[in-house]
Design goal:
Distance between the termini: 47 Å
CATH topology: Maltoporin, Chain A
CATH superfamily: TonB-dependent receptor, beta-barrel domain
CATH class: Mainly Beta
Number of domains: 1
CATH architecture: Beta Barrel
Shape: globular
Number of strands: 40
Radius of gyration: 25 Å
Length: 711
């Protein structure tokens, strides 16, 4: 730790961690969480069935709707960094929203590999088979964010290598009309004004039989990075990286009988950015970059339709989820002063257009009733078309062009069987068999050397899981072993030196997670503490290699061992005072070296050894109205930027972020004020590989106010 404030903050939090975690882990767990009104027990569906959180042998953190509202959350950066075991290191663009869990990352963002964390929107998997594009879905009117830590490919399929992030939207109410409206205005230090507006309304169409919910939102984040002109080159522009996000969601729920529920949902979102969140602090100045000779932009447009049917057969619930989505990501970036510009002084950039179309179908049968034997059977199918067209914006044809088309077909069957050995002790075993086929039609040209490849490959995978859970009433102890995997892919043809080769197809990589944990409640639930301790063994890692001519490809090589723990606690110090806190530790290192890439003992890049977060909220009466003040502190430790074969790798992170909030409820109206990144800290989050000296950071100090109305 380089910052003295970090040392003070960490030492101050040690005693708190014995008392305190965020309301995150208490709200529930992966799919949905509700409270049983009879005894206040938290009911979750992390295992795709409703169970008490104490009966689920999985480490899960949940950010509830109230927490999202309180933090004025809009995307990943607002809720992921404070969750122990989770790493969110945005690289300044939509293709670089990198999410990792428990250190399962090689620190690179490659268009050729699948992400190591599965991303779900309700029951639809959004993680593409190929391409590093995580959809940063707006969280307005979202019921909760569920983070399942550790691999669970048995239930969530490929890409759940390190874990799963699940965004759960709200369902319409069949019995009451409800709604909310919210507006926010904010000012970024030395930047533009930002503002947002959102509204949602749900109402029955037929009491108890049909309902509809309509949600719409708009968010304009002000820019805060300046483009400068150097030697008469480029055009100066202040606050050049503003963004705009707008979207809508339509949800219909039908209950034609007591046994059947049908949900239809449509989602639409479009994100546009004036540039990239990158600047050059050493070469140009704080929050400054340039010069820029071409216009930069980013566009991410997404549409999804889902049909979910749940039918109670008496002995089991039959669940069907059908989904289709269409998404196009497009970027243009100025590289006039990078090594890719072969015509110095002339405008040069790169462009990428990446459309995707995916259809998926899941059917599962989930046992019901009070039998000590519980079981789940399911099947999954998906068909995905994905393509990338990219190249340079200037120069002769064939200098640097790529047109890649991919087709994926996946079949999977999964099952879990649980048995209550005693009323307190449960044993669960399960597995998932996956068969997938990849077809690629690749047409590229690098330095006028054509690379054409049409290829098909098939792979199979079996990912099991075994768990033991002991529930002793007001707490539980568990142990589990689970396997995760990531799809193999086809490499894009690249120029090579004589005698040099690269694998045309790189296979799946996989890992085993061994974990023990405890979920405890004390002092009539005034104190709760969840602890997970794990070891992960990762093999055949999909690593990025560099050929003799400087072009990269993916290969399977090396092994890594990851050890760590996560502690989450909540202490209700009084009826009006709540402390929360998190501690996460990750020790991730190479145990079998990768020649030319990573040495023995090298730390896996992108994952801080330590993360600590805490908050305190004081509720009070203000003139007969409910009011609160709250402070949040996050320490995000240092981490290696990339593997280094010579010398020490560059280090990122190592920062403390402080947020303050206050608000009051006046009847049905909520008024709030906030300040985020109060000390205006400027850490390096990622370093850009194409533009030397360019880095990304967190948003500068932002002050704002919000006004909400609920009915």
């Amino acid at each position: 730790m380089r910052h003295a404030t970090a040392l003070v903050a960490t030492s101050a939090m040690v005693p708190l961690c014995l008392l305190s975690t965020p309301a995150l882990a208490q709200d529930g767990t992966a799919a949905a969480a509700t409270e049983d009104g009879a005894n206040g027990e938290i009911v979750v569906t992390a295992t795709k069935r409703e169970e008490s959180i104490l009966d689920v042998p999985i480490a899960v953190s949940v950010v509830g709707a109230e927490e999202l509202e309180l933090k004025n959350s809009s995307g990943f950066a607002d809720y992921l960094p404070s969750i122990p075991g989770v790493q969110f290191n945005p690289g300044g663009g939509i293709f670089q929203n990198n999410i990792a869990m428990r250190g399962v990352s090689d620190g690179t963002v490659s268009f050729l590999t699948q992400q190591t964390t599965a991303l779900y929107l309700d029951d639809t998997a959004l993680t593409l088979s190929q391409g590093a594009i995580n959809l940063d879905y707006s969280v307005f009117a979202v019921d909760q964010i569920n983070v399942i830590k550790g691999p669970n490919s048995t239930l969530y399929g490929a890409a759940a290598l390190g874990g799963t992030v699940k965004v759960i939207t709200r369902a319409p109410s069949l019995t009451e009309t409800r709604g909310s409206v919210k507006a926010t205005v904010s000012q970024i230090r030395r930047g533009d004004l930002g503002y947002s507006a959102a509204a949602s309304i749900s109402t029955p169409l037929s009491q108890g039989k049909a309902a509809v919910e309509v949600t719409g939102y708009y968010n304009r984040r002000g820019g805060y990075l300046d483009d400068v002109t150097v030697g008469g080159l480029g055009t100066a522009e202040e606050n050049a990286n503003g963004t705009e996000t707008y979207g809508a969601r339509l949800a219909l729920r039908f209950a034609p009988s007591d046994a059947m529920t049908v949900d239809l949902k449509g989602y639409y979102q479009k994100y546009t950015a004036d540039g990239f969140d990158l600047y050059n602090p050493t070469g140009v100045g704080d929050l400054k970059g340039g010069p820029k000779l071409i216009d930069e932009f980013q566009i991410d447009e997404f549409a999804l339709g889902t049909l979910s049917i749940n039918y109670d057969l008496g002995f089991a619930d039959l669940v069907s989820v059908s989904s289709y989505y269409d998404r196009t990501a497009e970027t243009q970036q100025d590289l006039s002063f990078s090594f890719l510009n072969f015509f110095p002084g002339q405008p040069q950039g790169t462009f990428i257009v990446a459309p995707a179309e995916v259809f998926s179908q899941e059917v599962r049968l989930v046992s019901s009733g009070d039998s000590p034997l519980k079981w789940l059977l399911g099947g999954y199918y998906s068909k995905e078309n994905y393509s990338e067209t990219g190249g340079l914006t200037a120069g002769p044809p064939g200098l640097f062009d790529s047109d890649s088309k991919y087709k994926y077909t996946t079949y999977a069957a999964f099952a879990e069987l649980g048995y209550d050995i005693t009323p307190e002790l449960n044993f669960t075993v399960g597995g998932r068999y996956t068969s997938y086929k990849t077809r690629a039609d690749l047409d590229s040209s690098i330095f006028f050397i054509p690379g054409v490849l049409v290829r098909e490959d098939k792979e199979n995978d079996f990912s099991p899981r075994i768990a033991l859970n002991y529930n002793y009433g007001n707490g539980s102890l568990y142990a589990q072993a689970s396997r995760g995997f990531r799809l193999g892919q086809i490499n894009i043809p690249i120029p090579t030196l004589p005698g040099e080769s690269y694998p045309p197809f790189f296979g799946a990589d996989s890992l085993w997670n061994y974990e023990v944990g405890a979920k405890t409640r004390w002092l009539d639930d005034a104190l709760s503490a969840n602890l997970a301790i794990y070891q992960i063994d990762w093999k055949d890692i999909q690593v990025t290699r560099t050929g003799g001519l400087g072009f990269t490809f993916i290969d399977n090589a090396g092994k890594a061992r990851i050890r760590g723990f996560e502690l989450e606690t909540v202490a209700r110090l009084s009826p009006t005072t709540t402390w929360t806190g998190n501690v996460g530790h990750i020790d991730a290192q190479i145990v079998e070296p990768v020649p030319g890439v990573a040495l023995l003992g090298a730390q896996l890049p992108g994952s801080p050894r330590w993360t600590v977060s805490t908050s305190m909220q004081q509720d009070f009466d203000l003139g007969g109205n409910d009011a609160y003040v709250r402070g949040d502190l996050l320490y995000y430790g240092e981490y290696d930027d990339a593997f280094a074969l010579v010398g020490r790798p560059a280090e990122n992170g190592d920062y403390v972020k402080i947020d303050l909030r206050a608000g009051v409820t006046l009847g049905k109206v909520d008024v709030g004020v906030f300040a985020t990144n109060l000390t205006d800290t400027r850490p390096i989050i990622t370093r850009n590989g194409f533009l030397p000296g360019y880095v990304s950071t967190i948003q500068p100090r932002t002050i704002g106010a919000s006004l909400g109305f609920t009915f």
